[in-house]
Amino acid sequence: MQWVVVGTGALSTLWAFGLQRQGEKVTLLTRHVEDGRHLELTAEHTDGLQAQSFEVIGDPTQAGRNSVWLIIVKAWQLQAVVDLLAGQIPDNAHVIISHNGIGAAQNALLTTPDWHLYDLVTTHGAWRRSRLHSVHAGHGQSWVGPRQPGLSAVPEWFQPLRAALPPLEWDSTILYRRWHKLAVNCAINPLATLANVPNGILKNLHFQQDIRAICEEVALVAQTHLGKALPELSADQLESGVYQVIQATANNRCSMLQDIDAGQRTEIDYLNGYICQLGQDYNIPTPVNQRLWQNITALT
């Protein structure tokens, strides 16, 4: 089976390494084709460093027609990636998407109705020491499932993907996982960024009131938006998930803090900003998410 991994971000690198270790054929789609036909990437784990060489392409039409596409990008980058691939890869391509937040490139994805779209949700923590050197900073877990109705059958690529970076579970109701991850990101990313601390510090009593309020606001917005009360999206369940990720990624500097340090755009509009916008649509107050959205926006 051939895989095309888009980009060389920290999590993209971890999945590419894992797939290639399983004997899968992995190609990177990247802008950095000037480096040659191959790139050597380094992944840093708790048990040491690993280096692997990957074939590189700069044009999606160079990939095999039966390739599985793995897109792990910033929310604000997804639109450009979809635009790049639209009309260039087979109409029935299997495309796995992972990004923080909800709502990114939603309209663009509606124009690709024949793609088989899947969402990958992960709580692994990772960061880049340099463009070609990624650090696996927190061992989490992942879920993948269909974005579209009618794709309930588990595809053949699931087994190698599960072996690449375990644990990975198939989840036919992946939308609820995306809302869980949204709550985690709405809490950890802005709070850790504004305090300039690694994730583990958020266990301190000082942050508990904000974390609880964020989860209550997200739970109410989510259940109103989805049109039903869901125990798995209760404030208690969301809060429990936040603290699980804080514990698992205690030494990691969250992606938003990394973006601020690098002078890059953050994903705040797709996280707390998204909750505030939905809250406005449904006349639901979201004061804590609003404050965090404004404070992070002021930093950029």
TrEMBL record:
EC number, as in UniProt: 1.1.1.169
Enzyme class per UniProt: oxidoreductase
Catalytic activity: (R)-pantoate + NADP(+) = 2-dehydropantoate + NADPH + H(+)
Any matching Pfam family: ApbA_C
Domain of life: Bacteria
Annotated keywords: NADP, Oxidoreductase, Pantothenate biosynthesis
Pathway(s) the chain acts in: Cofactor biosynthesis; (R)-pantothenate biosynthesis; (R)-pantoate from 3-methyl-2-oxobutanoate: step 2/2
GO molecular function annotation: 2-dehydropantoate 2-reductase activity; NADP binding
Domain Ketopantoate reductase C-terminal: 174-298
Domain Ketopantoate reductase N-terminal: start-end pairs: 3-147
GO biological process: pantothenate biosynthetic process
InterPro entries found in the cross-reference section: 6-PGluconate_DH-like_C_sf (IPR008927), 6PGD_dom2 (IPR013328), ApbA (IPR003710), Ketopantoate_reductase (IPR050838), KPA_reductase (IPR013752), KPR_N (IPR013332), NAD(P)-bd_dom_sf (IPR036291)
An annotated GO cellular component: cytoplasm
Family: Belongs to the ketopantoate reductase family.
Role this protein plays: Catalyzes the NADPH-dependent reduction of ketopantoate into pantoic acid.
Name this polypeptide is given: 2-dehydropantoate 2-reductase
